Amino acid sequence: MVAFKLLALTTLATTSVAQNVTLRYMPFGDSITEIICWRSKLWNKLQSTEWSTVNFVGSGKTENNCKDTKYDRDNEGHSGFLAIDIANKKQLDGWLKTNPADVITMHLGTNDIVQQSKATTDIIKAFTTLVGTMRTSNPKMKIVVAQIIPLGIGSYNSKVQDLNKAIVPWAQGLNTTASPIWVVDQYTGYSGSADNRDGVHPNDAGDTKMANIWYPALIQAFAAAKADKLQALAEEEKREVAFVA
Length: 245
Hints:
Elements lengths: L1 H18 L4 E6 L1 H4 L3 H9 L8 E2 L19 E2 L5 H6 L2 H8 L4 E5 L2 H7 L3 H18 L4 E6 L9 H18 L6 E5 L18 H41 L1
Parallel strand pairs: 1-2, 1-3, 1-4, 4-5, 5-6
Helix pairs in contact: 1-9, 3-9, 5-7, 7-8
């Protein structure tokens, strides 16, 4: 009878916890993640869904004139940073140690192309290092990677397109069941001139487009991350019951 009572209590506790599973989501990237408003639009889009309690995480907390006092500003966007530098300096290691995540989005590579004209192969190599860091932090990390937006300045878009083409087979090669990688196309249908306020960073129309492209993949990533947590709770319940029995 004692075992039965404990089983009932444990089941009730697990059900209660399952209903309140909190997911941690890190928007990760450069200034196109930091000094923009797609995060605000994305957060608001989530508020009418079951994912309204998702906790955005990261060291960045600056308001970016989004005219939104409510959204969760936390992010790990770093203006001017190169993917190659973040990987080589192991900066993401520290950011994830401070702010662990279940789900991460990555929009990177613009500065590598614009500032230093880095080769696509070198950027992709850095991406591989960064995914390794994500999975070291959380072996079940759910990863959403963007084919990056076009630019409205200079003649950089041929290199942007080269990088975007390389991202799909790269992601397919690293995809795993435990830590899937979704690729979202932030390039197609986005105008580097009309949708950017300065040729680089999205204006309101660009922010809306980016939020809408992130959203479906993030919903899938959140669902997968929640399933992991529920499975872990179920396994813990089984261990507790087995111990009492």
